[in-house]
Design brief:
heterodimer, A: alpha/beta, 7 helices, B: alpha+beta, elongated
Chain lengths: 232, 427
């Protein structure tokens, strides 16, 4: 089985003025298809860096990153953009919807950059919006929606390109616990359907839902526990 | 990877711009004023140009104009009672010599320009009476409306005939057919034989102002006839009383066969006049030189206008850059989101450039419309001639759009070069 994510001795260094900060000090990580992994750690431990690298928003300083079997550590900015467009779905803590676009348009954004015809994009967006229970709100602007609804839009948007890897950064951080639960259940469902999910959180309760918890401390992976076999 | 389709980029840009309607409007205002002022300036400039060009052209590029000029006489007694005969200006002898010695001369048209009381039955009108030769019509390019102009036969016999301007015909002869009527010019009777059309704008300078515009109420009579009746002396009335003046010719128009020969002819004219006249009691007007001067002036004018236009367009461009920079920094997060969702740098550049382009094109179009209306309004209210030309529109529009795009590149590139991670963190 070709792993979705394979990090080999991943090192990330930042130039911070005269200082060199090592945010990741040689991380090895493998995530198989269908896995639901949670990355945990204190702030500043390097988990955000790790997520950015997994999301192809950043380059490794050293080491290799294989996404779906392809080594993407040496790709150009444009090529990384394409990888993000085709293979990655992002879910953010603050939803990150584009305020001037309505719900459907927000869901369609990733398809724009793939040159998908407008009608096809619209069909897919409607389908996903309906699945997320947003049928009544298609023409609304994000600001007119509740936090939970906005996060549903964001999830729909992350699914619209049918990515091989979904990355969620504290997706429930801005939500009350009830709405947070709903979102987490939605994510559970996605995983049950076979989506590979990596989520960053510092909420233990959230972490319990995942089959695997990766703990990061000071730029290194300090523990890697499986709580069950990935559902196929 | 395919890019966003152009029509969707346009849609997106319009959508984004409509988020900031006031801002977009204000930004456009810079371009609107830029384009509109360029078009308006070029139109007014072109109108003025054409008017001058036409005036000069109508004077005839093959013509040389010589006029008598009265020069103040020193020690002429001072008192108004002292009646000296003021004798100055062009002589028949000058005309004679020019006909003989000026090279490539096609025609010579002598003129006396006099001011007289004219009368038909009980109607009177003070007007200019021009005593001249048949060539006059040709040189002035008048349109003969009715009857005939002066002929050589009139000259040879000194016939008491006259040709009148259309306005005079209308005023003095209303209710009558002027042809065949008798017009009294200062006590002498002349038979009207023809009517010539109005003086078009930019007519040949006559005795009065340099540019005499308006309708023709002149009377034209054969030079020979006038000389036989009156001779060369006449009384000039002024504030001090009357002065007896002797002028043989008020004006002389020389026509050269080809434009290329004008310069040589002018030299010959100058030599003859310098030899014959101790004082410079004449002036030489060469339309061809005026045309050259006008062209030079026009070139200068264009440079000045061009600079002003360029400045206003650059100001518009800077306005665009300013706004787009503000927009980009305000939308940093959006840029981060789009980058995370798969937009390449190029897509971001195109997105912001498209917004700039739409701003500048719509501003440009509005500017063109205003730029077309303003000269019309100027023409209408200020009675100044303007000329809308296609090149003015094309230049104003393309320059403004390209300036805006150039000024839009920097903000767009700045947006595209943002680190997506930083951009996503931006509040």
């Amino acid at each position: 089985m070709v792993p979705i994510v394979e990090l080999k001795n991943a090192v990330k260094e930042y130039e911070n003025g005269p200082l060199r900060v090592r945010a990741l000090r040689g991380v090895d990580l493998r995530i198989d298809p269908g896995e639901y992994a949670v990355i945990m750690g204190a702030s500043g431990c390097g988990k955000s860096t790790l997520l950015n690298l997994l999301g192809c928003l950043d380059h490794l300083s050293e080491g290799d990153y294989l996404l779906g079997g392809d080594n993407i550590s040496k790709l150009s900015d444009d090529e990384l953009s394409e990888i993000r467009s085709r293979r990655i779905g992002f879910i953010f803590q603050s939803y990150n919807l584009i305020p001037q676009l309505n719900i459907l348009e927000n869901i369609e954004v990733p398809l724009f950059y793939q040159g998908i015809p407008e009608r096809e994009a619209r069909e897919r967006a409607i389908e996903l919006a309906e699945r997320m229970g947003l049928s009544e709100r298609l023409k609304h602007k994000p600001m007119e929606l509740s936090g939970g609804q906005q996060q549903r839009v964001a999830i729909a948007r992350s699914l619209v390109t049918d990515p091989i890897l979904m990355l969620a950064d504290e997706p429930t951080g801005n939500l009350d616990s009830k709405t947070g639960h709903e979102i987490l259940e939605l994510i559970d469902d996605l995983n049950a359907e076979g989506k590979t999910i990596v989520m960053v959180t510092h909420d233990d309760e959230v972490a319990h839902r995942a089959q695997r918890v990766v703990r990061v401390f000071d730029g290194e992976i300090v523990s890697n526990e499986w709580k069950g076999a990935p559902k196929q | 990877m395919k890019s966003m389709r152009p029509e969707r980029m346009v849609k997106l840009a319009v959508k984004n711009l409509s988020q900031y309607k006031l801002r977009a409007g204000l930004t456009m205002l810079g371009i609107i004023f830029g384009v509109c002022s360029v078009v308006a300036m070029l139109s007014v400039g072109e109108g003025a140009n054409r008017e001058i060009q036409e005036k000069i052209q109508r004077m005839g590029s093959q013509n040389i104009l010589i006029k008598s000029v009265k020069i103040p006489q020193e020690g002429s007694g001072g008192g108004s009672n002292f009646r000296a005969i003021a004798s100055y200006g062009l002589k028949y002898e000058d005309a004679e010599q020019m006909s003989r010695f000026v090279p490539n001369l096609a025609a010579s048209t002598p003129m006396k320009v006099l001011h007289f009381d004219t009368r038909f039955k009980e109607r009177r009108l003070q007007t200019d009476v021009i005593a001249t030769t048949p060539w006059y019509l040709r040189v002035q390019r008048y349109r003969l409306m009715r009857g005939r102009f002066l002929t050589n036969t009139d000259m040879n016999f000194g016939s008491p005939v006259c040709v009148i301007g259309s306005r005079l015909a209308r005023i003095l002869f209303s209710g009558f057919d002027p042809i065949g009527q008798s017009l009294i010019i200062d006590k002498d009777a002349y038979t009207v034989v023809g009517i010539v059309g109005d003086i078009a704008q930019g007519e040949l300078p006559s005795a009065g102002e340099l540019w005499l515009d308006g309708e023709n109420q002149n009377v034209y009579i054969p030079l020979r006839t006038y000389l036989q009746k009156r001779g060369d002396l006449f009384i000039q009335w002024n504030e001090g009383g009357s002065v007896l003046e002797q002028i043989e010719l008020h004006e002389l128009i020389l026509t050269v066969d080809k434009q290329e020969h004008v310069v040589r002819a002018v030299d010959a004219v100058r030599r003859i006049l310098q030899k014959n006249h101790s004082k410079e009691d004449y002036s030489i007007i060469v339309p061809l030189e005026l045309i050259r001067q006008a062209r030079e002036t026009r070139r200068l004018f264009n440079i000045v206008l061009g600079s002003i236009a360029a400045i206003s367009l650059i100001v518009g461009g800077i306005g665009i850059m300013n706004i787009m920079l503000a927009t980009v920094s305000e939308r940093t997060r959006e840029i981060g989101i789009r980058r995370a969702l798969g937009a390449r740098r190029r897509d971001i550049v195109l997105q912001f450039l498209m917004e700039t382009l739409i701003l500048s094109i719509s501003g440009g179009v509005i500017g063109l419309v205003l730029g077309a209306v303003i000269p019309l309004a100027i023409s209408y209210f200020a009675n100044v001639r303007t000329a809308l030309t296609v090149p003015a529109f094309v230049v104003a529009f393309t320059v403004s759009v390209s300036v805006s795009v150039v000024f839009g590149i920097y903000p767009a590139r700045r947006a595209a070069m943002m680190d997506p991670i930083e951009a996503l963190r931006h509040e």
